[in-house]
Structures
1.
Amino acid sequence: MENFVYSIPTKVYFGKGQIKNLGRETAGYAKKVLLVYGGGSIKRNGIYDAVVDQLKAHDIAWEELSGVEPNPRLTTVQKGADICKEKKIQAVLPIGGGSTLDCAKVIAAAAGYDGDSWDLVIDPGKITCVLPIIAVLTLAATGSEMDTFAVITNEATQDKIGTGSPLMRPVVSFMDPEYTFSVSAYQTGAGTADMMSHIFEAYFSNTQGYMQDRVAEALLKTCIRYGVKAIENPDDYEARANLMWVSSWAINDFISLGKPVAWTVHPMEHELSAYYDITHGAGLAILTPHWMRYVLSDATVDKFYTYGVNVWNIPEDDDRYKVANEAIDRTAAYFKALGMPSTLKEVGIDASLLPVMAKKAAARLKGAYVELTEEQVLDIFRKAL
Amino acid sequence: MENFVYSIPTKVYFGKGQIKNLGRETAGYAKKVLLVYGGGSIKRNGIYDAVVDQLKAHDIAWEELSGVEPNPRLTTVQKGADICKEKKIQAVLPIGGGSTLDCAKVIAAAAGYDGDSWDLVIDPGKITCVLPIIAVLTLAATGSEMDTFAVITNEATQDKIGTGSPLMRPVVSFMDPEYTFSVSAYQTGAGTADMMSHIFEAYFSNTQGYMQDRVAEALLKTCIRYGVKAIENPDDYEARANLMWVSSWAINDFISLGKPVAWTVHPMEHELSAYYDITHGAGLAILTPHWMRYVLSDATVDKFYTYGVNVWNIPEDDDRYKVANEAIDRTAAYFKALGMPSTLKEVGIDASLLPVMAKKAAARLKGAYVELTEEQVLDIFRKAL
């Protein structure tokens, strides 16, 4: 286990009706906030009204930025930052899923930055002053409600890049599983695939961390138990609650502290969704099994064996490759059961841009569990066609 | 899963040599601190000097309270609180294991309280103002470094009672696994039994919490893997690091949030160590298997079955009691392997005070996984003789 500093100060109000604490908590940080959201669904399902009622009851003024995209764009970030500066906003209050939260995080950072917002994405070191972020989560997936990261798309350059800073971790998050009852089967599946991928990115590392790995397996088992259940029965509170809580812990640092590793599949997928605007979780579901098969070797078979035995309850066997391969097959089958595509063709991606995307992705894989060259990334993309 | 509020803001510096950050962190909270410690071991092993060097380098003044007992006493708490008031102390800095940390926590609370310190133990609601606590941990066991609790013994009344407040959670904890290399085999075993008991107290509840339970199993597996290893090879860094990190997570709220339950075995053991001053972990190791056998019934067999399959890798079987009983047997055997006693006689406890202790313990079991009457607690005590 390597040295680390643990600090996850986000306060989480979890459960039915917890929104009733939003006004009081927000009043501790701000007299004027920026509401950030995507489409109109929060107005139809009553969440918008519940938030606004809380703000009114606590004399908190607000401005609004709506229309945040599924892959949030730099231009939207800039628009939000301009409102913050102009209207003297004191806190940013996103209502939505990971895209809305990510957008709000970079808005909160850009509000205290004089240059181009993109600077903060390509150089997180420039993030030095961030407005408090108070998040209302409506989708279990990215873990943005409790982590330090944000992914922004620069539509001008077709770059989709993650940035991060401890200052961007929300100060308070409201997580009501009932808010996710209306999430579609497809988005539920994609969200679950995203969480599982976050856990894989931490789990597959070359550093020892026994406790971390057992916890990662616990989180994976939770995704596997409840992902399909939530699709089959969208109002299953236990399923939605477990998925929502696991989404935070998949990526809030806990399972990766002490065993740092550079991520692999996320950077590869980010190229797909930057160029083709596909659903992030769908891209991950397509690529993950191919990546697993590609990196399976004498050097990694023990880890995949452990994954198979501990997560999929595959009986122990002297043939370690047999167990490892079965674990990968079951991973692929589970993504299918989640309603996810398994080939790039299914989401409209052909071979034309694979070399460009492979080049960009490979540049971000230094320090990964298994480092991959540009050619190897291209090979994985082609196998996924 | 029930509603909850998650907030664990303790910052943890984990790993070799992290003490180098103590001066800078402490300076953020105080110009004058109270060092709290037990015997002289921290002076022999260099930890005291390392702390003092950090304070000097950052111009932080200090007072000292030494001689904290293994079951910390109210008189010691009062002595510490008096120093804090008299010397205008701004933060309390315990160096040691759970006893020292618990003592420091109540000192930090009593420093801001005008009445008798015992009031804060019997009525946690009176804890309203607590000096910041910065902990240096030298023993993996109680989890006091990241939790809200403290257990204090009133030697005048032979009461040993736990108190708690979110205000008593340390603001910063320093956890260097190398500090625990010198912990004796017996204390390592007792510490591991204590952690396992903390996890059991949360795990055996009547509320659903799938993710929480899988994480609890992950923590139990970590205790089981490394407890005996650390005894066999005291300088095994991975073993010490895993035990140290799991000690915090066994009790910092994470695995019990959403599935609250009143504790059972701890309150029972507190009576033993209040009357006989035995090692807490040893008392837990004696009582736990007897408690498990006593509460095993048609209502609880499924949980013990799951425990056996998931934690002890016992093969699934149609005979659920067979698996449950084997799980309990293996728990008892593991405590023995940790060098723990398995009968009360071994620690010098005879039948004479069992009725008195049973009466006191039973008064604290309302809302437990299986509620027990005074007679039932006495029965368990007798079986443990």
2.
Amino acid sequence: MPAPAHLLMGTGELAINQDFSISLSATSDPRLEIAASRLMAHMSKRTGMPLSPNAQRPVLMIECANSGQPVQSLDENESYKLSVTPQKAILSAPNPLGIIRGLATFEQLVVPSTAAGFAVPALTIEDAPRFPWRGLHIDVSRHWMPVEVIKRNLDAMSAVKLNVFHWHLSDNQGFRIESKQYPKLQTMGSDNLFYTQAEVTDVIAYARGLGIRVVPEFDVPGHSTAWLVGYPELAAAKGPFEIGRTWGIFDPVIDPIADYTYTFLEGFIGEMAALFPDAYFHIGGDEVNGREWDENPRIAEFKREHGMLAKTGTPSKNELKLSDEKLQAYFNQRILAIVKKHGKKMMGWDEILAPDLPKDIVIQSWRGQKSLADAVQQGFQGILSSGYYLDHMDSSATHYAVDPLIDPKTKQPLNLTPEQAAKILGGEVCMWSEYVSAENVDSRIWPRTAAVAERFWSPQTVTDPNDMYRRLDVLSEQLDWYGVTHRSSYTPMLDRLAGTETADTLRTLADVVTPVGLGGRARARKYTQQTPLNRLVDAARPESIVARRFAAQIEASDWTAVRAQLILWRDAPPPPQNALLQETAPVSAALKQTATLGLEALNFITSKQRPLPVWTMQATQILTDAKKPKAEVTLAIVDPIRKLVEAASQ
Amino acid sequence: MPAPAHLLMGTGELAINQDFSISLSATSDPRLEIAASRLMAHMSKRTGMPLSPNAQRPVLMIECANSGQPVQSLDENESYKLSVTPQKAILSAPNPLGIIRGLATFEQLVVPSTAAGFAVPALTIEDAPRFPWRGLHIDVSRHWMPVEVIKRNLDAMSAVKLNVFHWHLSDNQGFRIESKQYPKLQTMGSDNLFYTQAEVTDVIAYARGLGIRVVPEFDVPGHSTAWLVGYPELAAAKGPFEIGRTWGIFDPVIDPIADYTYTFLEGFIGEMAALFPDAYFHIGGDEVNGREWDENPRIAEFKREHGMLAKTGTPSKNELKLSDEKLQAYFNQRILAIVKKHGKKMMGWDEILAPDLPKDIVIQSWRGQKSLADAVQQGFQGILSSGYYLDHMDSSATHYAVDPLIDPKTKQPLNLTPEQAAKILGGEVCMWSEYVSAENVDSRIWPRTAAVAERFWSPQTVTDPNDMYRRLDVLSEQLDWYGVTHRSSYTPMLDRLAGTETADTLRTLADVVTPVGLGGRARARKYTQQTPLNRLVDAARPESIVARRFAAQIEASDWTAVRAQLILWRDAPPPPQNALLQETAPVSAALKQTATLGLEALNFITSKQRPLPVWTMQATQILTDAKKPKAEVTLAIVDPIRKLVEAASQ
């Protein structure tokens, strides 16, 4: 996973034993050496076999035709060919990136076999990505993510062939990178939680070894409160400013007409452009509410002078809004000049789109395929993020169904010429960090991101969600070896909640609930950056494998298994009682109640009796109540049980 | 855990919220600052609460009367007093070590409470250790343990108040530390798996911050093959030598009469004595078979000259053995002079004991309390390791029952005067690494070592195994926060074995089996250092919690629970079939068979019927067969089911 473009199964298998070794065809790209030794280390870890340092006969031959570009570019060739016979494996590619992708494939294929200890099945794969831009965006501002979190996620990204790490480094809630030129950015804007430039350089080098570009984002002119704490002279309103502790669209905004702003940004962007080698530089540009621009007489005067507002009269609300958009376009033009001067192409969210921008900018669409289509029809390039927001807590299947080239409403391909379609470069999964910490962020990113990675890499025709889940479950376990904690953080988080009691009963409950999305959380209580994320909702995973398997048992009319499962839930003792788990009492009550209902329905089904309409009515009410979020989690077995009730009532 | 010497429960509890902070009474020992910030980090991690950096009112007040010694010594005061009220906690100690111990206690007390989110119960503890030497010995030679393994185990040691890390740095299978003076020791004797001196210094500093002494061991004159690979001129026989890949008592041995040996050891011990600040230096000294001494005419001549052998005639086997012991005593005397010259006290295994050694040496007894009593009766000091060998795969309760001052056979206190008894300084748990790797070593060390740590720290009267297990289960979960992987490595190891299938069925089996001890493994197959440790026996834990709970249910005549459990085992599908799991088929068959038998027994019991004698006879045979190790694991539910069968047959 992601499924390869072309796969031909062969006969037999290549045994992987302790003599496994690799040969590298001569090439000067150091990434190949790095990739080969990483593979050796991974193989040893995954199989639990010490590999012989003196193995003579190479089992895997790597043949790479050329060196790659000194800075990984958007249009580098990532194709590879992998051919495995019972005697040996040959991986060839025109470019080191293809080798890196092919090794990710090879690794996944190593599993215990019936005959040998470990083996790779004989096969031939010819593979290349569908889209050149396959990214993961991580917000490190709202909650801090240390370097180790970033690195392990880079490792896992590489395993599913993602190639862009979009690093959301500044926002209202924290400025997360060291500026040597403007040190108050980090000293006053980060609670001392920021990356040093040495760390950033290290992460970029690490990512390069994995075939991943690093695109930094510095969100301006909105989402910038953290900048203004140290440098209030950048602001459109009078300071002082404090680091944002809550979230949403804030008023503080950069002054787009002051010379100081551009002097500052010239210096800052120059510094960052030198630090980040990638060709693209993301300036954010989203969600400016314009309030502080509107209230600043100097700015109003500027607008009138520059024809953004009528010279006289009180502008209407709509006129003000339009004037703010023009003002932001003006700001963007000036930023663009700076970004270009430092050799970068500009990138931003939908809002930066303006006809007079150059066509080599990239629009990142959080608004959807329609917005993206508009952009490419105007000749811009774009990537899709709408539909890939992990904080909505949607299922892998939901994200998997979102295609950058298909209208989600009509399910039809976007109405684009091939040239226009080619300007849709791919997409990015977005991990916004309002409701995640370093402890549980991996469990939100993985394995769901792997489903989207397949969308970005594999042929458009690969769409079967059942087959996706079958492979995703295997991959999710394999990702453990890359160090991501999406599975391993679950147990300690449940143990913490259970305190000195066993967490077994809590686990039974946690296994069948999913966290509500960010809307549900915002409505449930007043969160700040300091609110502990240590509750059931934080430990629960975005998808319930148990509920999915239960639904499949119902689908298959496997009534014995369904009954056993329902009895288990009905009779499950409640989780331990303590202050942290108090809120879960209604959730366990709902589990018990729906399981009881499910058993009643099952009895009707298996005894071939029909319930009275009043039973069905009551059942529907129970399910409606059970479906409502409680303690910010949703009971994932309600929908499967509704199917049972429907089957019983038919 | 370990249970404190004096505990008085109070009324109410001290809430631990995000304003938790610590005050330190003025003192110059930097370990207090380290300990306080470690506690803050741990508190945040364990509770999942970001702590406020600006909290004003200290919740925990630390009062330390004096600074400690520059190098932690054997006789430093480790006592502390902890008093917790609903308003605040006060931790006081005469020495920073006491503060470190008290903080370990405080941490364990922080749990979710009924009223507040987290809290510590009101109480007063006055605590001090029973023994001053409470160690963990880790062999890093037979299997390599990277620095991270050592550090996380130091963290966990500190959590249970152990204070000596005994680092077994050289043996036949690897020389694991950099010598600048004799670099071929590590370059030729370690497969390039060794600690640099910088790493060693870092580990020692890390341990000091945790109140742990680091005692290095360089085993001579036997167990020294790895030395001889690079320096064959040290050997009593002609080389060349190769790193040992198997284990046992090897022939290669250092030449005890050559001047070169003592010049070399003078240089080497000098270098190591400067690197390791601890007052003690462990020279091993165990298991010399003498064969190569006996075969060397030069050495025979030396023995005759020095009265170790008769001047003429062919010595008997026994005379040779005695002469070798005398020769080793001679060697030890010369080593002692070197060790002393470099300011250290000597330490060694039982075999070094000789009347003419100075009384400040420490004998580490792998032979038992009797051997230890002999030593202290002669005026030496000693520590016990017999009974604390983790590779025997005994239960926590078994190790817990071993007391350094009690004869294991008679269960009576050793016949010692108080002065003699005081010379028994404590003990060390031993983790020999023939059958462990960095991946599963923690699961062998923890939680069992915590039970022994309680033996070393708590009053001798604390001996109830049920109470120990109740607390050990809680502690074992808490140890996750110290980074040891004794619980977390289980899932990936099972997943690896299951390959692309779910590991659920394998887990059901693995949960109720325990690995055989080192004897069982040696008999089962020919192991070498390169043999993969990736099988069921390597994933299985030394104690089965599931089997222990099952036994308790039988004990409590909780027949409903017992029946449910037995049905689950009887009906459990077999684990996935692949080359790695093939060997487990007889184990799952035995599980099914014993569970079926258990259900039959239960039916007799609950129906108050008596089985025919032939049933009992067959049952006994089934249990005998089931008890035999298969695939190097033992089925842990056989003994509980035997109780059922006995109850049914009575």
